[in-house]
């Protein structure tokens, strides 16, 4: 694993990852600018750090590449963002495949939610409370404010704090010892200051997050309930609460303050948990282990629910969970049978259930083209669903239908051209069709969107070298290369 770009997360995952990343004594920091007369990072600087951090996170085995959970988090997240203070950030919510209860915000509006948090929430308002808290960290610019306090020590603070996170993430005593050694190695004061600031930021995030919950019509008591159980470390929270508590220091006073705010509203809140919340909770339970033993454990839980004669939503969710288990285990017929039962028990036309039904049917079909047509129709009926667009593209790719992929990409509206995945799909099919300049250009555009202008420039030069595109394509390549080189000049450190 190459060194992570500096991640100045307000709610960092200090000791929560059980990974064993390769340690490094140096962090490659992006070039940071600041507006005149201010020691604070600009929103553009924050976005730049966030994009470069995400480039590294996407390569982590803990980044969950699941379009279903990702789509659900984006829907829920933007319902909350719509109720948040006005912000210059474009938010991205993404899942991390980790059983611990945690969430964190990166600079520029990137917010991670651990699958353990989704599984542990007892209702949707509890999950919304955690996400609203992270959104508040971003809207209040806690990262920029913390770095302003560090003044001339920005790079050292970012680099040293990240090294400590990586060391703590290595797991076991050796990891903890390494983290302690780094903290004692000249940057202890900076890290101590960061932690002190983080505690004051947590109080502000509580207040703003509470307001977001109320405006988005969620029960603000959900935030209090979730935090209260974490503080008490009761039930299933006992084993997994330490990660969140280490990153988000809770106190009785903070929880009491939230309870007082809820009482002052003097209005009842009726819980309206979405059906999709329970579906994605079941999906997260299955996916987060990444092992057959973990799937077997989830299967037993779903079967236990059904053995108690569950009906309606409970039964539909259990059958859906079993379908996900069987699909991952390679039992296409059983996965399809459970998917059918889930749709029947739900008594509703849910897009996640319909997608699962078609995908399990696609997996077992000898002639896949009729099912592909139904998947295309479902995607067309839900034109803003990134999940369905990606599902259809992946199925087309499996069938070697690259011309159809290029045609679909141009006509669809779910995956925009400011999404790196758009160009990843474009590059993959262009390469398969032997259109090498177009493939290199698309790969360069993908890197550019991820903030890696050095790799982008390299890909554009490769497109020029191959030069097998038409006049229009090659003119675009020339313009793209000029833009990449301009960015590299701006990023070059000044001495």
Write the layout of secondary structure elements.
Blueprint (H helix, E strand, L loop, with lengths): L42 H15 L9 H15 L10 E5 L6 E4 L3 E5 H6 L3 H16 L2 H9 L3 H16 L2 H13 L3 H28 L5 H12 L4 H11 L4 H14 L9 H13 L4 H16 L4 H17 L3 H15 L4 H14 L4 H13 L4 H13 L3 H10 L8 H13 L3 H14 L3 H14 L4 H21 L4
Parallel strand pairs: 1-3
Antiparallel strand pairs: 2-3
Describe the structure.
With 495 residues, this protein is mostly helical. The protein has three domains: 43-265, no CATH class; 274-364, Alpha Horseshoe (Serine Threonine Protein Phosphatase 5, Tetratricopeptide repeat); 416-495, Serine Threonine Protein Phosphatase 5, Tetratricopeptide repeat, CATH 1.25.40. The chain is built from 23 helices and three strands. The protein has a three-stranded mixed beta sheet. A hairpin with a 3-residue loop joins strand 2 and strand 3 (110-114). Helix 15 runs antiparallel to helix 16 (351-364), helix 21 (436-449) runs parallel beside helix 23 and helix 22 (453-466) runs antiparallel to helix 23. The two termini are 30 Å apart. Residues 1-38 and 158-197 have low confidence and may be disordered.
């Amino acid at each position: 694993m190459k060194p992570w770009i500096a991640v100045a997360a307000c709610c960092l995952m200090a000791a929560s990852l059980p990974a064993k990343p390769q340690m490094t004594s140096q962090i490659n920091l992006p070039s940071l600018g600041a507006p005149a007369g201010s020691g604070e990072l600009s929103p553009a600087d924050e976005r730049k750090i966030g994009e470069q951090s995400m480039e590294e996170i996407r390569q982590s085995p803990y980044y969950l590449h699941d379009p279903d959970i990702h789509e659900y988090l984006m829907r829920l997240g933007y319902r909350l963002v719509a109720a948040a203070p006005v912000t210059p950030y474009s938010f991205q919510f993404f899942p991390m495949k980790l059983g611990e209860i945690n969430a964190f915000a990166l600079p520029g509006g990137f917010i991670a939610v651990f699958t353990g948090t989704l599984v542990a929430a007892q209702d949707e308002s509890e999950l919304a409370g955690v996400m609203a808290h992270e959104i508040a960290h971003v809207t209040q610019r806690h990262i920029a404010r913390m770095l302003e306090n560090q003044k001339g020590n920005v790079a050292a603070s970012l680099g040293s704090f990240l090294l400590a996170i990586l060391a703590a993430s290595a797991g076991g005593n050796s990891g903890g010892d390494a983290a302690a050694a780094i903290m004692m190695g000249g940057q202890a004061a900076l890290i101590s200051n960061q932690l002190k600031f983080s505690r004051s930021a947590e109080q502000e995030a509580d207040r703003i997050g509470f307001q977001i919950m109320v405006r988005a019509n969620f029960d603000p008591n959900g935030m209090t309930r979730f935090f209260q159980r974490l503080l008490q470390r009761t039930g299933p929270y006992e084993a997994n609460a330490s990660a969140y508590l280490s990153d988000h220091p809770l106190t009785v006073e903070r929880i009491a303050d939230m309870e007082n705010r809820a009482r002052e509203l003097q209005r009842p809140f009726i819980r309206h948990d979405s059906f999709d919340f329970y579906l994605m909770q079941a999906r997260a339970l299955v996916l987060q282990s990444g092992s057959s033993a973990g799937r077997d454990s989830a299967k037993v839980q779903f079967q236990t629910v059904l053995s108690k004669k569950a009906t309606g939503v409970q039964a539909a969710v259990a059958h859906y969970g079993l379908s996900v288990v069987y699909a991952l285990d390679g039992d296409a017929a059983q996965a399809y049978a459970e998917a059918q039962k889930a749709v029947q028990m739900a008594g509703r036309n849910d897009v996640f259930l319909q997608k699962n039904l078609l995908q399990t049917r696609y997996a077992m079909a000898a002639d896949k083209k009729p099912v592909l047509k139904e998947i295309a129709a479902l995607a067309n009926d839900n034109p803003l669903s990134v999940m369905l667009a990606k599902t259809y593209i992946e199925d087309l790719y499996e069938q070697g239908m690259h011309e159809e992929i290029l045609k679909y990409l141009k006509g669809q509206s779910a995956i925009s051209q400011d999404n790196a995945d758009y160009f990843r799909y474009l590059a993959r099919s262009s390469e398969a069709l032997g259109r090498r300049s177009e493939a290199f250009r698309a790969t360069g555009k993908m890197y550019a969107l991820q903030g890696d202008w050095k790799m982008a420039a390299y890909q554009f030069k490769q497109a020029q070298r191959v030069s097998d595109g038409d006049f229009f394509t090659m003119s675009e390549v020339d313009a793209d290369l000029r833009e990449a080189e301009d960015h590299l000049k701006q990023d070059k450190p000044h001495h």
